[in-house]
Amino acid sequence: MNLFPKKLCLILLSAAVVFTGCTKKPVRPEPGSTIGTADNSLKATPVDATPLTDPTATGLEARPPGVIEDADTIRGLLQPVLFDLDKSNIKESERAKVAEAQKYIVAHPQYRLLFEGHCDWRGTSEYNLGLGDRRATAVKKYAEKIGVPAAKSETLSKGNQGAVEKGTEEQMASDRRVDIVILKK
Question: How is residue 109 annotated by DSSP?
Answer without folding.
Answer: T
